[in-house]
Every structure is written in structure tokens, then in C-alpha cells.
Amino acid sequence: MRFTRLLAIGLALVTAASGCASGPSLKDAAAELQKDAQRLENDDVFKNPLMNLRIVQHPDKDLPCGGDKVKRVLRATADEERVDESLDSRLDKAQRVMENTLSRIMGYEVEHDISQADALEGRFIYGSKEVGVMVTVYIAPEAPTWRLHAQTACLSR
User: Fold this and answer.
1) Which residue, of 55, 74, 90, 117, is most buried by count of CB atoms within 10 Å of its CB?
2) Cα dihedral sign, 54-32-47-44
3) C-alpha span between 17 and 28 (Å, rounded)
4) What secondary structure, in 3-state letters, does the chain show?
5) Any idea what the Cα angle at residue 113 is, between residues 112 and 116, rounded to 5°?
6) 16-70 pLDDT, tens per residue?
7) 8 Å CB contact between 71 and 151
8) Cβ distance 151 to 133 under 8 Å?
């Protein structure tokens, strides 16, 4: 029994270590970021022309980030129609919309930061994917409502 448990733990550690050693590849991370751009453009909420979705930077070019490593970047903005509601309510709604889009449509693991729950100056959402992609979204009180910045980790070509 004890031997079996130690063997299982040992195998788990070896598997985890070998997975960490290989890490994400630029090819996989860049492909995932390209899919994210398509998912955002095809999302029912953001494909509405009233949202004014703009892909500001497509993730199709390698950007140097030191040594022989490069990254890919996706930047986008979108805006929601202003309705007669309090700023806090509007930011809450915009935050929920983006958290749902990131987690359900785009597949990000979203971090929940309760400390900015009632911040009227804007909110930040952070998310990541195991393939080596991170996203930050700023929800602004002024237009554009959402300012998305997603990028791969710095990876070897």
C-alpha cells in the first residue's frame, strides 16, 4: 500500500516535471491567440456592430522580447452603448460580460479580484491559458469600454 502510494506520487512528479520542462511552444500559443481573435469577432455579443469591436493589433507578427525569444500580441477595443444607469452598474455589467466572454467563449482561466468590485475609475480582468497566453482587459468608465491586451509568453521560435 505504502509502495503504491509512493509510486503514484513519484509518477505524478515526473509527469509534472517533464511537462514543465517542455513548456508551451510559440506555434501553439500563437495559434491559440489567432483563434482568440476569431472567437472575439464571432462572439454573439461583440459581433454586434453597435459594440464597435476593433482589432487594433492582430497576433500575426513575432515581436522581439530579449535574446532569441519572441511573443505575439492581440489588442482589441469595443464599446457598449451608454444607457441611463449609474457608473458602478455600467462597470459591473461590462465586467460580467467580459468575464463570461473570456471564460466561456475564449477558454481563459479568469482571476477574480474582489478588491476592485466598486472601483469607479475602471476595472481590470486578468486571465491565462496553459498554452502560454495571458490576457488583461481594462474596463473603462469612458469609451471604449473594453481594452483587451492578450499576448503569448516570450518563447523561442
Assistant:
1) 74
2) negative
3) 20
4) CHHHHHHHHHHHHHHHHHHHHHCCCHHHHHHHHHHHHHHHHHCCCCCCHHHCCEEEECCCCCEECCCCEEECEEEEEECCCCCCCCHHHHHHHHHHHHHHHHHHHCCCEEECCHHHCCCCCCEEEEEEECCCEEEEEEECCCCCCEEEEEEECCEEC
5) 140
6) 333 444 689 999 999 999 999 999 999 999 999 999 999 999 999 999 998 899 9
7) yes
8) yes
